[in-house]
């Protein structure tokens, strides 16, 4: 395997080992780690096509994590993708209404974040061991709802770690909130903030960038790391399932090996779709990457105008995990289309910070041809949930529905009939009020929790054990803080 090193998109760090990049999470200059050279698939698709999820995960991830031994990486994979997923397929593809849903929500917290966060703790621990780090690792995470719970679940009771999660107090669904505030584990801390997701994410980024504070933590034998999708340890595991989806479609004879397929991803922080882009660069035959946004359509505007502008009203929608105005991982794409020019990337990111917007050059714009940006309003999203359910009996969550709506719109506009997979990022059980409300107005008088039962009656699909009786579990976390007090809270905990 060709050795891969990482560097910062802003030029401040290079020749960094995969382990070091995972441990650090974010580069010291505020940039994100990217492979110095994108690994190319070292096997034929034919060779990979019959692998089960675990084998494929090992095979794809070894291209990126080249300083992990085979035993180390296999152990990480096997510990992550086991019976905590409710199907041995881990991420099944189902065909409905002529399109393919890649169900990424079969893990313990019912959202696609489990795909990466069930393995990240093992990657981190292995990396720390390789680097002889004996400090306690403190995972600091901002969440728009799903990352937090998946990270808590992944890190709970993992020796040598603590996990601190900040979530927007009024910006997540009732079920998401309850999932987090009932989290067990003696190393878990959950704090609501008075602000939105961007506030939480900015607060966390600031703590990471605070040299003084980090020095103090180091003296007290702690080191910070991130479970957000800026960590390549999150990104790399997500590359796997695009290959897996492709091979499932080949197996079902929907496509032949070598044919291209399109991918639609409901997008927030641009992590999931970036993983699909990386898969394409490795050699997976992906055609278009369709980036689906909700009403917070910064990315739609970006792809259509070349201008990124975060200064706009933040809209709380029925797809809260996509309610984001600063898509952190876009920086990795910017870096790529800037011809890997770290100065240019740094300049644009600083402009964003100071001015609230930036515009890419025409040359950069021309390199965006792999992408298509679309968005769906809340009304369209709800309509599509109902329509698909009535047609097929298949119920999708609000995030997946944004992608489905954008896909429908894409086909009617472009007539592109390439076989397409939609990343289905959450179980409808996680967003019962919106999903059931889309089906019938009569459900609007019930609570999120009552609707879990109603959804079960309607779909006859078992209630996932991650949320069964969730309203009866004791609330273990009830701390709320102001957005400017996040550092203080972290200090108090440690
Ligand atoms: C996090 C999340 C998204 C957005 O994914 P990104 O990688 O941040 O673009 C979409 N849907 C659901 C359900 C999520 O939890």
Characteristics:
494 residues; alpha/beta; Rossmann fold; 6-stranded mixed β-sheet; 5-stranded parallel β-sheet; 15 strands; globular; binds pyridoxal-5'-phosphate
Write a structural description.
It is a single chain. The protein has 21 helices and 15 strands. With 494 residues, the protein is of the alpha/beta class. The chain has a domain of 249 residues: Rossmann fold (3-Layer(aba) Sandwich), CATH 3.40.50.1100. The strands form four sheets. A six-stranded mixed beta sheet has the order 3-4-14-9-10-13, with helices on both faces. The chain has a five-stranded parallel beta sheet with strand order 8-5-6-7-15, sandwiched between helices. β9, α12 and β10 form a beta-alpha-beta unit. α1 packs across α6 and α3 packs across α4. The longest helix has 20 residues. The model has no long low-confidence stretch (mean pLDDT 95). Bound molecules: pyridoxal-5'-phosphate (PLP). The site of pyridoxal-5'-phosphate has 17 residues, from α12.
